[in-house]
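Re: that backbone. Tokens:
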């Protein structure tokens, strides 16, 4: 008999939907599997105000194909000019579920991010007061810090000081990539959560660099050495409520990936659930998949779990190697291993 696994419908706690033609192409890929997603605000220009977030949400809902059930959870892009009152109003209306901190220059479209953290202190204090989480891209951007060390240095120099200075602030360490981050998150109280992507559970830096450069495996934070990948696997499959799925599925056209200076991002929306089932089964933890994809995230954000269920069946999945968009093809993440689980 074919093995099946039924779990509550999952959510994606870190997603890039982009805008326009790209959004129309990638939104159905996420909505086919995920009930909700935290939508990243790093458009050009970024989604900074409540009014911009409301307009973006309306564009997403207008692009959602008829009959699909999906709720975008909106975020605001924190700048040094962000006003605490605007953030509070966007939260009070139910529109905004988190505020996103990008250190200036850290990743795609992060030029408007924060350089001087003292300038965002009033906003962070308001967020602590109203219980609105801060989602953090946890890398320093100093040119003298090695790219493979930027997450660990960020924890010491930025994250821990922010949390100490703003007691009660709920923080999500996004797309963690190191054992340092796993250890830090594990040692904190329940005001801290950490998301882990699909691709960081299956690739290490050799996948990017050994035997020729593989631009489709390049993302930020960049994948680290194997010991870090294994630490992420243990955290994700542990059932620890601190850790939950944020795919960071980040579509770029092949034309923008395959350049002398190519974009960072892996597009994992179409095959994430198949890959995760494979990973959790390999680690003898299929019984923890639902906690990682469907329970721990809502608990952190104070939202109800989804009532609908998803069934995974142990048969080889079919998914495209790339999807077509009006901007050009987007390559789907290659997990570099055979997959045995399909969403049915
Ligand atoms: Zn991201």
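Recovered sequence:
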């Amino acid at each position: 008999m074919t093995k099946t696994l039924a779990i509550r419908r999952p959510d994606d706690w870190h997603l890039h939907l982009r805008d326009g033609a790209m959004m129309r192409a990638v939104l159905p890929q996420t909505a086919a599997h995920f009930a909700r997603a935290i939508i990243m605000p790093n458009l050009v220009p970024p989604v900074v105000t409540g009014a911009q977030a409301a307009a973006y949400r309306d564009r997403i809902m207008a692009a959602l194909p008829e009959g699909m059930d999906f709720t975008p959870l909106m975020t605001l892009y924190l700048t040094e000019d962000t006003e605490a009152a605007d953030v509070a109003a966007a939260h009070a209306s139910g529109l905004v579920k988190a505020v996103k901190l990008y250190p200036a220059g850290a990743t795609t479209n992060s030029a408007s991010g924060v350089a001087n953290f003292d300038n965002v202190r009033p906003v962070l204090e308001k967020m602590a007061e109203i219980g609105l989480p801060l989602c953090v891209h946890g890398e320093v951007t100093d040119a003298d810090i090695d790219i493979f060390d930027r997450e660990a240095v960020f924890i010491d120099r930025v994250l821990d000081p922010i949390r100490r200075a703003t007691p009660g602030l709920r923080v999500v360490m996004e797309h963690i990539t190191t054992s340092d981050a796993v250890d830090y998150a594990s040692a904190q109280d329940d005001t801290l959560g950490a998301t882990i992507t699909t691709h960081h559970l299956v690739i290490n830096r050799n996948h990017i660099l050994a035997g020729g450069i593989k631009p489709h495996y390049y993302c930020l934070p960049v994948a680290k050495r194997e010991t870090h990948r294994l630490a992420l696997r243990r955290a994700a499959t542990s059932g620890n409520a601190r850790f939950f799925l944020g795919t960071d599925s980040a579509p770029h056209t092949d034309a923008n990936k395959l350049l002398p200076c190519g974009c960072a991002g892996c597009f994992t929306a179409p095959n994430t659930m198949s890959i995760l089932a494979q990973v959790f089964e390999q680690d003898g933890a299929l019984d923890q998949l639902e906690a990682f994809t469907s329970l721990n995230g809502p608990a952190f954000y104070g939202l109800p779990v989804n009532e609908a269920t998803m069934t995974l069946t142990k048969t080889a999945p079919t998914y495209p190697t790339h999807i077509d968009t009006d901007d050009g093809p987007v390559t789907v993440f290659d997990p570099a291993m055979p997959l045995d689980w399909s969403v049915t």
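The chain has a mean pLDDT of 96. The radius of gyration is 19 Å.
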